Each structure stands twice: as structure tokens, then as C-alpha cells.
Amino acid sequence: MPKRAQPTEWWTSYFDAQYLLEYEPLFSLERDRVEVARLLDVLGLPSGSKVLDVPCGQGRHAHLLAEAGFDVVGFDYSPELLARARSRGTGPRLRYRRGDMRRLPAQWRGRFDAVLNLFTSFGFFAHPRDDRTVIREFARVLRPGGVLAWHGASRDGVMARFLGRDWWTTGNRTLVAQERTFDPLSGQLTVESVWRGPRGMGSREHRIRLYSPTHLAELCADAGLIVEQAFDGFADKPLSRTSGEMMLVARKGNPLPGSRRSR
After folding, report:
1. Which end of the chain has a smaller Cβ tally under 10 Å, C or N?
2. pLDDT at 8
3. Angle 168-173-179 (CA atoms, 0-180°, nearest 5)?
């Protein structure tokens, strides 16, 4: 009997030209520079440090980090977004690679001084165990003392000010509308998007598992990453119960002799 085809997860095809158009109001060079300046302050790393931006999307942060003197690798699953990132330029201090963040290259063990997971780029997978795997992969490729900067939605804050519907217009006058529902048992936020504009009309859906700061800190601790700081998104103020976004900064400790992580 032939094997039944497995359903394709939404993230395998979502990050394309339509994604760039839909979220266009959030993408600006001014915003990118403000966020990278904040990352430089939070990370406190010297020039030449090795940084992994995963997933890197269209290279918004990776490009500017390389300009700032870091040795940057951008890693993403989407061929469309990687093509857009490479079109901005590559070089000895900026390379891009395609892959699944649940399985980072084996040879990257202990290579990076910092790993960045930005712009709500976590919780995509159907099974929570895959999110645990991602955090463990981040820890694996960090050197001892290396830093993970994780930025995304805070479940507590999103639920405190839940916005069920929203709409906006892009630069080419495409009207985009979203309707959101949340399942408190699975922790999944489902977003249905519809659009109409010069390029036509359409609709699609994506789902993201939201985490509380506590749960995410526990996932990090299980992987040997200790959260040292928690901010209200990219702002220079502490995370609060009503923060819609959070940035957690976690450091990889030195493994204990004889532990499985030290082998």
C-alpha cells in the first residue's frame, strides 16, 4: 500500500512575495537600524564576533549587523526570502544558508558568540517538541558564554490586549485584513489573512504557538541557557505583564564535567 502523503505545514510556503507585501508596513530601514542598534547594546559583543541570525528572513538585521563589523550567517528555510536577502549583498562577513532550524549543521557546534531569533520567528511547528528542539539547537551552536537574543510575542501581553481583527493598506494600495483566534489549550494563535489589490485577491492562514516568558525561560534552562534579562520588546524597559512583545537574553553556561552536554 502506498504511503499516505503527509500534510504540508503552513510555514513551508508562507514566506514569499505575498508575505513581504502583507507585512510591508512593518519593514523599513529606519526601523531595522533602530532594532540593530538596540541589539548591539544588549549583546555587548566586540567587532568580529560570530553571529547566527535564524531565521533571517530577507536579511533585515543580518545585513546591518555585518555592516557593524560582525561575522554573520543568515539561516532560513524560504528560498524567496533568502534571494531577497542575497540581493542586498553578501561578502566575507555575511553569508546565507538555507535549511530547517530544527536541524542546524552539525559542524556548527559551539561556533557562534550569539544566536538571534527575532520578529516572532518561533512556535511555527505543529508539535511543541519541535520548539524544544529548536532551542536545543540554538544552545548547541553557541559557544560557552554565548548569548541567545529571542524576540517575539509575549502570550501574557497579547491576551491582555487581544486584537481579534485588524486591517491596513500597503504601498501599492492592497487592502489587507486579518482575523485572529486563540486556543488557550494548545497555545496556538490562528491568523486568517485576506487581501485585495492591484495584483488580485486571495486568502490564507497561518498559526503560531505563543509562549509566556516563564515557559520560554524554562525551555531555555532545559537546554542550558539561563535567561539573564527580559525586556519589553526592543524597548529599553523591563518586560511587564502587559508587554505584547518580549526580548529575552539568555546565556549559555559551561557544562558540568561528566554531563551529557559536555560530551
Report:
1. N
2. 82
3. 30
C-alpha cell at 159: 491576551
- Domain extent, residue 60, equals 11-154+212-253
For the stretch 98-149, pLDDT in tens is: 999 999 999 999 999 999 999 999 999 999 999 999 999 999 999 999 999 9
Assess contact for 15 and 57: CB atoms under 8 A.
yes
pLDDT of amino acid 7 = 56
Residue 246, in any domain of the structure = yes
| Dist CA 57 CA 121 (whole Å) | 9
Same domain, 131 and 22: yes
190-229: string of b/e by CB count within 10 Å (b at 16+)? ebebebeeeeeeeeeebbbbbbebeebbebbeebbbebee
The pLDDT assigned to 173 comes to 95
Which residues, at least 6 apart from 214, have a Cβ–Cβ distance to it below 8 Å?
Answer: none
Identify which of 97, 87, 44 has the alpha carbon closest to the alpha carbon of residue 63. Answer: 87
